[in-house]
Design goal:
184 residues
Length: 184
């Protein structure tokens, strides 16, 4: 009995210290979509699971899940209806559609402007227009890694995009003499 209590306390304490070592605390994660965005309907945010959902139109939806510790993970799942088989889709239709909606998600995010063009170029570079649904690839842009894959599920195309952003330490060591060593 006493060993069980000690084991429980040890596991609880180690979990607490692991959270304290994180560069990104779970409680600081907030929704990505602005509440007053004209592009999304029926926005919901579950603060416990850090999951956000929104309707893009009457038949398309978006799910965003965030997590992190040493890196910030943002997992997007875009669910679009499949067009009928007689419709000819433009080359790179699915990643282009996802890019348009990402632009709308990040409309108020200034850091998106820093990497959005490079992201779009890489996304279209790796997307094989001759291959069918089910593509999987990843690529880096600045301090972010992007993981893209598609699936067809129940007559819908699901475009999955995960963005993993590396988080730097706040304590940057600069070369040269430490600032505290100067006498005033």
């Amino acid at each position: 009995m006493i060993w069980g209590i000690l084991l429980f306390l040890l596991i609880g304490f180690s979990g607490l210290t692991a959270q304290n070592d994180c560069k990104l605390r779970k409680e600081t994660l907030k929704p990505l979509i602005q509440n007053n965005s004209p592009f999304f309907n029926r926005l919901t945010w579950d603060d416990k699971t850090k999951t956000e959902t929104a309707l893009l139109d009457e038949s398309s939806e978006l799910h965003i899940t965030q997590s992190g510790c040493d890196r910030h993970h943002m997992a997007f799942v875009f669910k679009f209806p499949m067009p009928d088989s007689s419709t000819r889709l433009a080359d790179a239709y699915w990643p282009s559609l996802a890019f348009i909606w990402l632009d709308r998600v990040f409309q108020e995010n200034l850091s998106w402007q820093l990497y959005r063009q490079d992201f779009r170029k890489q996304l279209l570079r790796f997307y094989d227009t001759q291959a069918g649904p089910g593509q999987t690839f990843n690529f880096p842009v600045l301090e972010r890694n992007f993981f893209y894959y598609e699936t067809q599920n129940k007559g819908r195309m699901e475009v999955h995009l995960e963005i993993v952003k590396y988080l730097y330490n706040d304590r940057v060591r600069r070369p040269g003499v430490e600032e505290e060593s100067y006498e005033e």
